[in-house]
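Researcher: Quick one. two chains, 580 residues in total.
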Amino acid sequence: MLGRFTQGELPIAGRRREQLLFLMDNGIYVVTVFMFIVFVFLAPYFFTPRNLVNILISASLAGIVTAGYTVAILAGQIDTSTQGVLAVATVTTALLFEEAGFSLPLTVIFALLAGVAAGLFNGLIVVNGKIDAFVATLATQVVMLAIALFLSGGQTITIAREGLQEAVFIRVFGIPSSVWIMFFCYIVGYIMLTQTKLGAHIYATGADYRASLLSGVPVDRVIRIALVISALTAALTAILVTARAKQSAMFGLAIAGSVDFVTALTAVLLGGFSLFGGVGRIERNLVAVFFLTILGNGLQLMDVPTGIILIVRGFALVLAVILSVLRARMT
Amino acid sequence: MANDEVILETIDLDKSFGAVHAVRSVSWKVYSGRVNALVGDNGAGKSTLIKLISGALQPNAGGFRVRGQDTRIGGPAGAFGLGIAAVYQDLALVENRDVVMNMFLGSELTRGPGQIFLDHKAMLRQAHQVLDDIHARIPNVREMVRNLSGGQRQAVAVGRALIRGGEIIIMDEPTAALGVEQTQEVLQLIDTLRAQGKTIILISHNIQQVFQIADYISVMFHGDLLGTRSRDEATEAEVVAMIMGKRSP
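Model:
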């Protein structure tokens, strides 16, 4: 008989597919907990308060940038300009605080505005130029890196003035502020994505641009907003990284090795997101960020050479891409 | 035909794309609470005429009269305002969103400060109500659209049109990709809509189906509207002849 749907049932293939998708989407929770337990036994000093706080700080820096990145991916925009935004914002922070003598609040505001400007620039190229975000932001990143290089004169700006690190990295209940900021970003992100009209429009635009357009969703505005959010969280991360290191950081190099486009992308994909937009839940990304951070931290404590750790991280990205494509084929 | 009220009328509507004259001075009457079928071969101008009525295209000349008032249809939003809602052939549904979010896509119910928060409860309630009204059999409105059958998808798309206040519902080849039983579901859906007083504009290739469901059958050929017949006075042979360009006496 055709039309079994009339009895209110899905075809078996559909149900099995949904089960497999559920497993792919939620496997990250199990794997992360399992890995944590393994490191507790295998990696010396792993399960010490000091190291756990270290993990939290590392995860918070990668986590904040990933939160905004997630929003862009959900709207169907692969934002590859993260490194460029980080560079512009770190140089802005260091220059304004150290050399121009700006107050801390003004420094933070201008560094965030630099992020907003970068996001608007991305939006202009993507929306008005009708260029795929992946390619467009690859190009804008080059411009941003060059601007950062020009502003800093190619030098690392060391921050000798007191007050930045102390203010930014205060501890609340023993936990550094960056960790609280990360949780705040994810809570706001979660509410925005699941409870607001903007969130519904971000999901819809990423899942099906044309259908959303025909249904009256302001797709172009949604894409602009998503790109601004992505750049804004990158700028926020840059301020924190700069404050922590007490110097401007050129990203992609050692100092901020764990906060980059690749980490964000890996985390997003491991979290069960589709590269093609419209699918995923932000809370899973947070778990994926912890997965990557714990993996790096645990291997380091086991004295695994850095080169090997980078290779393992590379494979994590490859695995994540495969999972993402498999997932896209199934839906 | 004499007793039926005209709800929408195109007046000398004309549309060209470069050298292609897609719609030639078409004056067409759409009857209220009836199923108005529009038939014709590929390239006859059906889709263009429908896009003009749904506001997706603007005419080069001519106009509209809706409920007796001369008006223009400025765009899809303008069409919604007049109670005209199109259900596109590909339905314009978002596969990876659930039934409720698809039905309210672009016209979400909101609450709270600045109306930025979604009113999930109200949307859920209204979605259930609309789907019940059209006797749609969708067991779970939180189901992703990708898991629905063709007939169920059609119901979701029609539900969206109704939520937007659609009184004149344009359905473009709604059964083109469906199997036998699902086609019957959609025909029942059209029947239900008519029973509720909605006006249907139905584009179809399938003559038997048109004779099964439509009250009026209008035929287009090479951009011209050849004529409109009530189902009772027309024969399949006559309509087929008109589709092939033979003007009936």
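Chain B is about 30% helix and 30% strand.
Researcher: Thanks, that's what I needed.
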